[in-house]
Design a protein that fits this description.
The protein has 239 residues and is α/β, with parallel strands linked by helices. The protein is built from eight helices and ten strands. Helix 2 packs across helix 3 (108-121) and helix 2 (93-103) packs parallel to helix 4 (137-149). The protein is globular and about 50 Å long. The structure holds adenosine-5'-diphosphate and magnesium ion. It comes from Longispora fulva.
Length: 239
């Protein structure tokens, strides 16, 4: 079981920027929740608060129903994939995926077993001995996902995982990443500014504007019955 509860979360930075403004949102067990909104609306900040990389100014975070703000990041069982995959260039694909297991002191045999499982699930089983420089953008992205899921996180956070790819490849990978995320079966919070990506990937979409949550619902709900003009414009709902 893995749920996230955001309760009246606000994040103000020292320079006065209010990046997240009184956001309350529940992510259900096993669902893919997409945070959608334009650049600067507070998506990454919210994700970083869930991961423990940032503390909110006020508000509470619940993981599996328990207050989690005092839990250090490494004990939250949360994995995060960033937009720049930050693979280790000197390590092979296998080495990159195994890296978190090595840090955790998992035995070498178990490392190779788990790496093989994850790589097979992501369709990169043939690439284990390659270096990142020998991979395509889409393949690198899978390696980054593999490295994130190999420790079997209870919660999977993805921050614009497709945004460093060109638009053609992004369109191609949209459906693919959606089925990969679904196959993982892990509770997922997926950040994007791309409405087509959001509508493809999401079980539910949470729409943000300037730190404020505007609307939450299934793609059909937010597309068909947008709460505000802003939501309608963002999703391209016909008038
Ligand atoms: P998004 O991911 O939706 O593009 P962010 O969460 O990165 O948005 O940023 C939200 C707002 O907070 C932006 O105005 C950004 O400039 C600001 N911001 C982010 N991080 C910091 C920081 N460390 N200090 C000051 N302002 C920040
Ligand atoms: Mg961001």
């Amino acid at each position: 079981m893995s749920t996230v509860g955001l309760q009246k979360i606000t994040k103000a930075f020292p320079d006065g920027t209010v990046a997240v403004d009184n956001v309350s949102l529940d992510v259900r067990d096993g669902e893919v929740m997409v945070l959608l909104g334009p650049s600067g609306c507070g998506k990454s900040t919210l994700l970083r608060i869930i991961a423990g990389l940032e503390d909110p100014t006020t508000g509470q975070l619940l993981l599996d129903g328990e207050p989690a703000l005092d839990i250090p990041p490494r004990d939250r069982h949360v994995a995060m994939v960033f937009q720049d995959y930050a693979l280790y260039p000197q390590l092979t694909v296998a080495g990159n995926i195994a890296f978190p297991l090595r840090l955790a002191g998992v035995s070498v045999e178990e490392q190779s077993e788990r790496v093989a499982d994850v790589a097979a699930a992501l369709g990169i089983g043939e690439l284990l001995n390659r270096k990142p420089s020998q991979l395509s953008g889409g393949q690198r992205q899978r390696v980054a996902m593999g490295r994130a899921i190999v420790r079997r996180p209870r919660l999977f956070l993805m921050d614009e995982p497709l945004s460093s790819l060109d638009s053609g490849l992004r369109a191609e990978l949209r459906a693919e990443i959606s089925s990969m995320v679904r196959d993982l079966g892990a509770t997922t919070v997926y950040v994007t500014h791309d409405q087509a990506e959001a509508l493809t990937v999401a079980d539910r979409i949470a729409i943000m504007r300037r730190g404020v949550l505007q609307d939450v619902g299934t793609p059909a709900e937010v597309y068909g019955r947008p709460a505000t003009m802003y939501v309608a414009a963002l999703l391209g709902t016909p008038k």
